[in-house]
Write a structure and sequence with these properties.
heterotrimer, A mainly alpha (294), B alpha+beta (348), C mainly alpha (266), A: 294 residues, mainly alpha, B: alpha+beta, Rossmann fold, OB fold (Dihydrolipoamide Acetyltransferase, E2P), 6-stranded mixed beta sheet, elongated
């Protein structure tokens, strides 16, 4: 009845709803950031909002802070997830009944907490009077509260990074655990006979299957942490702010004239994420990095 | 379910094509995995050239192993699959690629290095698996029913290939199978296994012609196993048939094993041969040979196998003479089987 | 040597496991603490103060749990209805520009919500969708629907056409084929997609804040002031409560959908 167009027809609800929400949001943002939809006065096409931002020192401070936090969080989260998956792999191949499932479930626990709670926990545990400082004090490693390093609400963003890693590495483990489940014991046996110990089996057999979903997962995390609002809002400092926090602040100021600037910041966040994606896939295709992950 | 394997003493000689044969569940694959180091030994030891390797893990034994399924890594191309063992040994990239290619061409898959396992046929994949096991020049190649998943035609081809490899590289091969035909075609020596024990070890021919255990005869497919006793140089079956023996055994109970091809059917009593009378019930032609089923007047059913000389079909349903040579008869005393049963049963 | 290495490996593994779970334990203690001064490692007094306040009627917690659940359930249902046909198309058919369409449908999770949010807010203002439950529901679809589509796509690609063809030859009509063959098969995927939808929807703060305009008070909105510099014990109690509600809803979902499946099978 519908013939060849059936799949397109099936996609209509998804495309219209997401298209409306996604492009509805972005296109409006683009239009407004170019001065075409002012809330007062006449529309006037201009790059001024962008040029102002790109010429401002504050923007670049925010930008570098955001990039640093997103990059470090992603890398740490990825490394942690790989380590955990390696342990789960060892547990799986070394136990008769596969116990890795239970450990995997335990790792999933942080996922039921929202980002704001993650940020809150990190705040409580890492502040100078927090739990870690108390343990260090009790064990005599520090002698007073103030000798514990400031890790929350400081300008490097350690607290933010820890909260992100705490919250996102379980996501990566969840995403990649099916790969561990897909590894058949017969492959492990074969690899052993061919001279591979368990680490090399992981490196040569498991990792290559994991690499594509790992990259996707890391990209999702990078994009999220680059633009997320809640965690840096709770754990950040007044200056410099990450891009999303400053954009939201500009947007929600009573004075509506800041809106095009906020939109411009958003579009710059989007462009950075897209460019990172392209850059990575470009490097991946051409560079020796290819050999590392071959 | 616990499974125990008891191997008293088993030696494989250098350069030998050695077989482990038995029905499924007899422990032959388990034994092979123990040799490979994939399963631990509870007691006793494994020696290789006099060196104890019991505690050495599989990845350090550097043996080659080919499994029943090809077990190629699906996302690596053929060349990388073959080169895997070399990579684990730390052979530099260019060298291992060259060696993998050489090995591939010696199993007849010269230009397929870039392909992926799923793009090859079952036979090709098993060839790759052999190349992968061979590429590191292992002193011993272990093969676990490597051809049982292949078509019968392919199987023959692969057997030839493995025999060629065995000759060319003069390596020791230990080969597991449940297929008698394969055993007779390939093995220098073999062990017949049952319930986790080695029943008997020897060359396929000696095991077939002079089995010393009843199970060997049964497993190798000898259909005529008669129960009875010996008396004054004769064997008396339970049904009352008398057969002359080569040696005077005294009075003992046991089984007499008669290979079907050692019996000969004729219309008249042949001179200088022992013979008994029977009815030729059925003949079946098979690849130049004739399978016959005969019944003695005492109701004993026997099978014979002889060359087709055209006469036999005319004799169907008639009385014929069945002749034999006492040297072809193998008598196995009962007591022995009783003892065997007690040791064969694994602990519960 | 190898033993030592393995032991160390698993010690580190255990530490990570503890690091993952420990903060939750800490929150739990904090929510029951009546006093906890430096440098005590355990609270010095037990108190139900925070929980009494959180679970009491004055705090409005129950109402906001209702709002959160309402939004999460409605979003889940809408997502399922949209994602099932979409998953069918992406999982079982081949058509031009499939790859591009697939990426487009994944974009909302590759782009942080804040980027889209403000433009969406302006659009919703023009459409009169702000400060309303319906607007928040729509906005919550943005970060959740892609996951649901992903889940149904995987399920459909495993299903293929064979079983449905079999059912067709047995005389099952379109609706019965869906009910008896397709839906039971999709169920595990839908459960995963729904669980993610519920979690993500309930966790949203900034989307709910902006689109709801402070008028739609979900549990996350209710707890935010306590978390951001408010009373610590209350913030901790809310955090635990949130996790319990989210997990409870996911268990319910699992039970409900599985029962539905069993009845269908009868």
């Amino acid at each position: 009845m519908l013939g060849k167009n059936k799949p397109l027809f099936l996609l209509v609800p998804a495309l219209t709803s997401l298209g409306f929400l996604f492009f509805g949001g972005i296109i409006y943002g683009v239009i407004q950031s170019l001065g075409l939809a002012p809330l007062a006065g006449d529309p006037d096409f201009t790059f001024a909002y962008y040029l102002d931002l790109l010429g401002s020192f504050d923007f670049w401070r925010s930008f570098s802070l955001t990039l640093r936090i997103a990059f470090i969080s992603t890398v740490l989260s990825g490394l942690l997830a790989i380590f955990v998956l390696y342990c789960l792999f060892l547990i799986r191949i070394n136990s008769k009944r596969d116990r890795s499932v239970y450990f995997q479930r335990l790792f999933q626990i942080p996922m039921v907490f929202p980002y704001i709670v993650a940020a809150y926990m990190i705040f409580l545990i890492f502040i100078q009077s927090g739990w870690i400082a108390r343990i260090l004090f009790r064990t005599g490693l520090i002698t007073e509260m103030s000798s514990f390093p400031v890790m929350t609400n400081e300008s490097f963003g350690w607290g933010i990074i820890i909260a992100y890693v705490w919250k996102t590495s379980p996501f990566l483990v969840l995403l990649l655990y099916p790969v561990i489940l897909r590894i058949e014991y017969s492959w492990v046996e074969t690899a052993r006979v061919l001279g591979a110990n368990s680490f090399r089996t992981f490196r040569e057999i498991v990792f290559p299957i994991m690499i594509t979903p790992l990259e996707t997962g890391c990209f999702i995390i990078f994009a999220y942490t680059f633009g997320a609002y809640e965690v840096p809002f709770i754990l950040g400092v007044t200056y410099p702010k990450v891009l999303s926090v400053s954009s939201y602040e500009i947007y929600s100021r009573g004075d509506l004239s800041g809106q095009p600037t906020a939109m411009a910041v958003n579009i710059l966040i989007l462009l950075t994420i897209l460019m990172t994606g392209f850059l990575y896939s470009f490097i991946r295709k051409t560079h020796p990095l290819k050999r590392i992950v071959k | 379910m616990d499974f125990h394997l008891y191997i008293q003493n088993l030696q494989v000689k250098h350069g030998e094509f050695f077989g482990l044969i038995g029905e499924s569940g007899c422990g032959k694959t388990t034994l092979l995995k123990i040799l490979a180091g994939l399963l631990p030994v509870n007691e006793g030891s494994l020696l290789q050239n006099g060196r104890d390797i019991t505690g050495i893990p599989a990845e350090k034994r550097s043996l080659g192993m080919v499994f029943q399924q090809d077990r190629l890594f699906p996302y690596m191309n053929i060349e990388k699959n073959v080169a895997f063992g070399l990579k684990m040994k730390g052979v530099p990239r260019s060298k291992r690629i060259t060696r993998a290619r050489d090995m591939l061409s010696s199993v007849g898959l010269k230009d397929l290095g870039e392909r992926f396992p799923l793009e090859l046929s079952g036979g090709q994949r098993q060839r790759v698996a052999i190349a992968r096991a061979m590429v590191t020049n292992p002193p011993i190649l272990l093969m676990d029913e490597p051809f049982s998943a292949l078509d019968p035609n392919l199987r023959k081809e692969m057997r030839e290939l493995v025999l060629d490899i065995h000759k060319k590289y003069s390596m020791t091969i230990i080969f597991v199978t449940h297929d008698r035909e394969e055993a007779f075609m390939m093995f220098d020596r073999m062990s017949i296994m049952r319930n986790g024990n080695v029943v008997e070890t020897g060359t396929p021919r000696s095991l077939y012609e002079k089995p010393s255990r009843l199970y060997t005869a049964r497993f190798l497919g000898i259909p005529n196993i008669l129960s009875g006793r010996t008396e004054k140089g004769l064997f008396l079956t339970l049904e009352g048939l008398e057969l002359s023996m080569e040696k005077h055994e005294g009075e003992r109970e046991g089984e007499l094993i008669i290979r079907p091809e050692s019996l000969e059917i004729t219309q008249f009593h042949p001179e200088d041969r022992f013979a008994f009378r029977a009815i030729l019930e059925k003949t079946r032609f098979r690849q130049g040979m004739v399978h016959c089923k005969i019944t003695t007047h005492r109701g004993l059913i026997l099978e014979t196998l002889e060359k087709n000389n055209g006469e036999l079909e005319g004799l169907t349903g008639k009385e014929v003479y069945v002749s034999y040579s006492p040297t072809d008869l193998v008598f196995l005393e009962n007591e022995r089987e009783v003892r065997e049963c007690s040791t064969l049963m694994p602990e519960k | 040597m190898k033993r030592v290495f393995m032991l160390m490996l698993f010690i580190v593994f255990g530490l990570f496991l503890i690091a993952g779970i420990f903060p939750i334990l800490y929150l739990f203690m904090l929510s029951f603490s009546g006093g906890w001064s430096w440098p005590d490692i355990l609270p010095s007094e037990f108190s139900l103060r925070a929980w009494k306040y959180v679970l009491g009627t004055a705090s409005g917690t129950w109402h906001s749990i209702g709002v959160s659940l309402h939004i999460a359930v409605v979003v889940t249902i809408i997502n399922a209805v949209i994602a099932i046909p979409a998953g069918d198309a992406l999982g079982r058919y081949k058509f031009p520009f499939k790859g591009v369409l697939e990426i487009i449908l994944m974009l909302p999770i590759l782009v942080p919500p804040i980027v889209i949010l403000m433009g969406l807010h302006r659009t919703f203002i023009t459409l009169g969708l702000t400060e309303k439950l319906s607007g928040v529901v729509l906005a919550h679809m943005l970060p959740t629907l892609p996951y649901m589509i992903r889940a149904t796509t995987i399920s459909f690609s495993r299903l293929g056409f064979e079983w449905e063809e079999q059912a067709k030859t047995l005389g099952a009509g379109r609706i019965r084929r869906f009910a008896h063959v397709v839906f039971p098969f999709l169920l595990p995927g839908i459960i995963v997609g729904s669980a993610l939808t519920i979690l993500i929807s309930m966790s949203q703060y900034v989307i709910t804040l902006l689109i709801g305009g402070g008028q739609v008070i979900t549990l996350t909105m209710r707890m935010f002031p306590y978390i951001n510099g408010g009373d610590q014990g209350t913030g901790a109690a809310y955090s635990i409560l949130f996790a319990l509600v989210a997990m409870g809803l996911m268990v319910l979902l699992d039970v409900f959908l599985n029962r539905l499946y069993r009845e269908k099978r009868m």
